[in-house]
Amino acid sequence: MNTKQTKIEEKTLPLFPLNLVLFPGAVLPLYIFEQRYREMVKFCIRNESSIGIVMIKDGDEVGDNATPCKIGTAVDLVEVDRFPDGRMNIMTSGHSRFEILEVDDELPYLVGRVKVLDSMDSEPDSSLDAIAGDTREIYIEYETLSSFLMFGWLPPDEIPQHPQQLAYQIGTRLRISLEEKQDLLEIRSFDELLKQEIDILKQLNKQIAFQLSARNN
Length: 217
Hints:
The protein has two domains: about 10-120, LON domain-like (Archaeosine Trna-guanine Transglycosylase, Chain: A, domain 4), CATH 2.30.130; about 125-215. The radius of gyration is 19 Å and the shape is globular. The protein has helices spanning about 35-45, 130-150, 165-175, 180-185, 190-215; strands at about 10-20, 25-30, 50-60, 65-70, 70-80, 90-105, 110-120. The longest helix is centred in the C-terminal third of the chain and has 27 residues, at about 190-215. Helices cover about 35% and strands about 30% of the residues. The relative contact order is 0.17.
């Protein structure tokens, strides 16, 4: 991996296990009603801390602490709307992938010691320009075909030139299972991540083109 791209950093993050996969660059609105997560958000506000969003490996979102996957995405609080009874609507924005090294369950919510893997702010890796260019063309086709197939499908306003940010956006936009998305999130090398996304995009583009052809006949 390009040494300019990633500075290895360890930190402690409150963890929020959910039945979803979030990539850096994506925004995530959350409705906070459980007391433990109200406390977590208050802690993050006081300490200007990020939150670690992780897909649930075992367990449920509500109730006892769930077992999280090892790789997740750190998000910042962008907006907090409080209700009189203590519930909250929050808006978060993903900025970096991380690996959980250790989990502490002594608090009402999980806390992880994590290693930051990469972030939205990393410098573009010029060695990825060629594969990113190929990926971008196939991805544009995917967005165009999807807009023809599905009413209300809106392609993003901007498709990144930045190779790593492009990989993140594609991961967010792909219509695949959560397990497949988690597999993509866990690919450390952006070269391998883009290659895998190309394979998935090609398969999806064929499927969509077939559906459009069948619908028009």
